[in-house]
Amino acid sequence: MAILGNIIKGIIDVKDSFSSEKNPVEEQQDLLKKLLTKAKNTAFGKHYDFESILESESPATAFANQVPYFDYNKINSEWWYRLQDGEEDVTWPGHPKYFALSSGTTGKESKRIPVTDEMIDAIKNTGIQQVFALSNFDFPADFFEKEIMMLGSSTELKEHNDHLEGEISGISASKIPFWFRPYYKPGEEISKIDDWDARVQRIAENAENWDIGALSGIPSWIELMLQKVIKHHNLNHIHEIWPNLQVFTSGGVAFGPYEKSFNALMGQPITIIDTYLASEGFIAFQSRPDTDAMKLVTDEGVYFEFVPFKPEYIKEDGSLVKDAPSITLKDVRLDQDYVLLMSTVSGAWRYEIGDTIMFTDVERAEIKITGRTKFFLNTVGSQLSVNKMDDAMKHLEAEFSTKIPEYTICAKRCEDDEFYHCWYIGSEDALDEQQIVESLDNFLKEANKNYKVARSKALKGVKVTLVKPSVFHEWSGANKKKGGQVKMERVMKADKFKEWESFVTEL
After folding, report:
1. Which stretches does DSSP call E strand in 65-133?
2. Residues 168-173: contacts with CB within 8 Å, 24+ apart?
3. Which of 88, 295, 348, 435 stands 20 to 30 A from 363 (CA)?
4. C-alpha dihedral (5, 7, 8, 10), degrees to nearest 10
5. Residue 249, strand partner residues
6. For this UniProt entry, which residues form the secretion signal (predicted)?
7. CB under 8 Å to 241, separation ≥6 — which residues?
8. Buried b (16+ CB within 10 A) or exposed e, 405-426
9. Which of left, alpha, beta for 381 (phi over 0: left; psi -120 to 50: alpha)?
10. Is the pLDDT of residue 208 over 80?
11. What is the mean pLDDT of the chain?
12. What is the pLDDT at residue 11?
């Protein structure tokens, strides 16, 4: 009998039955006051007079009026850079022990996002909330006795000045509570292996010793790990070695493009649960089975604001114009794209994370991620921004003495069932496509850390088709978008790209 599983399931069910209905709007109002009170004596809090905001009739309104929007470059150049010099009480009391490394969209250096003890607690508490939400999925008792494979970044954090650095998944995994460690795989020793291939090889070698009931991680890396385990043990599918696998907690990128290939590795259907964990905080998770939307975490360290995603509010680089209007959770509407803003217990204030979201249920505060504030290619985790694409075109222009006024790109599975970045590049010159492929690929590997990692794993390669620039103009005309201010879609989804390729072929 699954005695332990019944006990755990019983605790979860009882906790769920005694939990009172929470009001997300009230939780957010209370949280803003707590954040402002905690940080009012920091350099940031004094500069923007948090004391007066707290004393105002409407702290949310005063906060929006007195504190400007920040993206990473702005808050880092004005405030966070002081943390690297060891300064305390800058945007949050004390000095963070950790910094989450996250690849930036400009420059080759990774972003360094402060991660405070309060943020680690918030992420841990949100993880517990998600565990309790499993009662809504009606899993059998023995599921709660199975082990969980969490495939993230290395938990071997690097020392830098007076703090430790690593990706947020590695920081979070390094702080796993003692009671959870018996369930956590691949375990501390293997999780510290920095080389991804070596780590996955060790997982494959040990897979038969584990009884995995759940997987957690980015779909592309999980898929490759499963393929490695299947190949190492000469299996037909993963359920031959992990027969009790029932859940995949997906995060990092959209699961949709991976659904078919992922399911092909299974011997039976499993439950997919989406999560939204960023370097800046644990934002949302799917809390019930009858939706694929995620519930905003409104009571654990993150205060949210929302700016309607309209062209007049967005600069060309994807950041917000100064006077773009923001609203709070109580005023959001269904089926409207919003730019997501965060203020957190790590000292991010009115911070543009770069994502756009849409509410599918206002009362439950449930959302879906709808895109990025600028064109952004992240199907296989390459995190390739338009800024980097433009830089790559300038590089090609210089190297091949050509002009490239137009281009478009799509990440898609090709005939060999592998992901490629498929580029259409407009040039009047007779260029060698293979030389362009090699130059483009090498440049992006140097310019973007995540692209380089993706190219060694889930992203098989680059394909380039050279066409006349006039083809792009004809496409715009055929789609009734011709005009001097019209811009070609730099990034296309697979369905639109299929139409584009058919259009090019028929010309």
Report:
1. 98-103, 110-115
2. 168/100, 168/102, 168/113, 168/115, 168/277, 168/278, 168/279, 169/217, 169/277, 171/98, 171/100, 171/115, 171/120, 172/120, 172/123, 172/124, 172/127, 172/277
3. 348
4. 120
5. 216, 273
6. none
7. 207, 208, 229, 233, 235
8. ebbbbbbbbeeeeebbbbbbbb
9. left
10. yes
11. 82
12. 45
For residue 475 the two structure tokens come to 């496409």
Sign of CA dihedral 137, 230, 216, 356: negative
- Which residues make Cβ contacts (< 8 Å) with residue 354, sequence separation at least 6? 71, 105, 318, 372, 373, 374, 376
- Residue 355, phi then psi, degrees to nearest 5: -100, 155
Return d(Cα 423, Cα 407) in angstroms, integer: 7
Q: Please say if the pLDDT value at position 329 is more than 90.
A: yes
Query: Per CATH, which fold does 376-506 belong to?
Result: GMP Synthetase; Chain A, domain 3 (3.30.300)
CA–CA gap between residue 65 and residue 506 (Å, rounded): 54
Strand 247-250, strand 110-115: pairing: unpaired
Judge contact between 346 and 46, C-beta under 8 A: no
Radius of gyration of the chain (CA): 24
Distance in angstroms (rounded) separating the CA atoms of residues 348 and 413: 37
Query: What are the residue ranges spanned by the domains of the chain?
Result: 376-506
Q: What is the pLDDT of residues 263-299, one digit of tens each?
A: 888 999 999 888 888 888 889 999 898 888 999 999 9
3-state secondary structure of 369: strand
**Contact (CB, 8 A) for 124 and 406:** no
CA distance 69 to 351: 6
Phi then psi for residue 35, to 5 deg, are -65, -45
Q: Which two tokens stand for residue 62?
A: 């005063």
Q: What is the pLDDT of residue 448?
A: 81
